[in-house]
Write the structure tokens for this entry.
Amino acid sequence: MLKTTVLQDYFMLCKPKVIIVMLVTTWVGMHLATMTFVPWDILIFGTIGIALAGSGAAVINHLVDRHIDAKMIRTENRPIASKRISIFQAALFASLLAMSGLLILSFLVNFLTAFLTLLTVLGYAVLYTLFLKRRTPQNIVIGGAAGAMPPLLGWTAVTGEIDALAWLPVLIIFVWTPPHFWALAIYRKEDYQNANIPMLPITHGVPFTKLYMILYTCLLFAITLLPYATQMSGLVYLITAIILGIAFLVQMLALYRTCSTYMALKTFSFSIIYLLLLFTALLIDHYVQVLG
């Protein structure tokens, strides 16, 4: 078992890699919402508030999933599953993180962003983790709505209102999530099977899952063109989206043609890079238009 310090254990509970990806998409949402630059106070307090609330949701996920985590190789060393941190300590930590984040958003950003963040936390930590994950192979499809919300949170943090265009980055992440997570589910199929989690590769088989991943990737390709079609973005984004979309589809086809679990892991990793590059292109394109 990997030895860790108490500080490292608490940091691990926050799922820092997930939070970083979440914050990148949040920052893009913030910048897309304005034709100038994001006010420094909104950028700082919005980031801190959303990060704290998201970290609180991550800790709740660890807490609820502790019995499942203990049965899976990928997660058996998590602090709560391995009993290095008690249930009470984790619950207290989650409460402090979530409440601190929501209070910061309420008083230093705006109430709408705080309210939407609360719904996001409940959607991920309760609806997905406690109910959907254990009951349906469509768990990640439905539950992915919560994980797709950060760009909208960033947008409302700046504007204080919901705009139709703000839903486009949300829709991109929502459609990206199933093929992204199913790649991991294929790689860790035995883990999910041992934990009795009805992931799609278990309930419907790996070939069926791979076919669905290709279909979702095709849908994702079309949806990523919407920011250009709605004039939210320009040619820089369009060219990048097309190149990345083709590369993602090629990766999915490569996965479909092989039985290698390593290819599934490679696809999972590639999907993260794909999303980060796509949102970076959105941001760069936005300021090319603003400064141009």
About this structure: Residues 261-291 form the longest helix (31 residues). The mean pLDDT is 95. Residues 163-292 form one domain.
